[in-house]
Amino acid sequence: MKLQQLEYFMAVSKYASFTLASQKLHTSQPYLSTQLKELERELGASLILRDKKHCRLSPAGEVVAKRTEMIFALIKEAQEEINELVTQGSTTTIRIGTNLIDIDKAFGEVLLLFNQSYPYVSIDFKYYYDLETALETDLIDIGIGIFLDTSIPLEKELIYTESYLLCVNKNHPLAHADSVTIDEIRSLPFAAYSDQVYEKKVFKRWERKINWENRQIVIELPSLHLVLDMVQREKACSILPYSLTDELNRRNLVGIPLEDSPERAIYLVQNNHHGHCEAHRYLFEQLRYLF
Hints:
Layout: H1 3-15, H2 18-25, H3 29-43, E1 48-50, E2 55-57, H4 59-88, E3 93-98, H5 104-117, E4 122-127, H6 131-136, E5 142-145, E6 157-169, H7 182-185, E7 190-193, H8 200-209, E8 217-221, H9 224-232, E9 238-241, H10 245-250, E10 253-257, E11 263-270, H11 278-287
Parallel strand pairs: 3-4, 3-5, 7-8
Antiparallel strand pairs: 1-2, 5-11, 6-9, 6-10, 6-11
Helix pairs in contact: 1-2, 1-3, 5-11
Family: Belongs to the LysR transcriptional regulatory family.
Keywords: DNA-binding, Transcription, Transcription regulation
Protein name: Transcriptional regulator, LysR family
């Protein structure tokens, strides 16, 4: 059974004429008759009673007409729901890029709330060292991170600015200090981010600014967790963002305010190469409160 056969059947039922139905359907009368005969053969019953001038539905035809109306109504309803999903962006993938390596947990919390409103949206979340180029070349729809030396005109929205803390093991001699100065930590060994981490640029600028380009970095690592592991093992201390305070406490590490510390400004940028669906706009709004 084909939907086209049911459509032909309903047209004959509506116009009570094979000739008029074929005209309305823009098909030939012989083809229309052939399709309806195949439908009757498949159902094992005569659906249309014919006379010289008119045709009418048989009792079986009345049943088929009633059920066909329900089928077409369900198809229309399904199409409307699909159109609504497309309008809302629920059948698309929203691509998000970041050059931060410490927002996985915060982003996960935002994503859980987002999925409650848009359960069928696919989110592609990736790290990009060059976030500007990823936006410019349409690799991502939303970018969140640090933008230094911006050479591409972007409409950035500042969502958070924070200072950094000195991170030490709870057994470190400075662990109970209320704050520390740069001079107090100049001789300490540090675990720092490696070249794969964009945020290293923040520290390089800061080191030049305070004339500390010979900072004693004993190891450079590509992830936050590896840096924290070094501090936990008392192999080094580190300088990390204030927003990681809860993570430091969870690991029994200590974050100490640092005078003249570096600062990072975090921006939210959206790709304006194409329109934004409702789901995109909703997610963008939620990311404003990521920190």
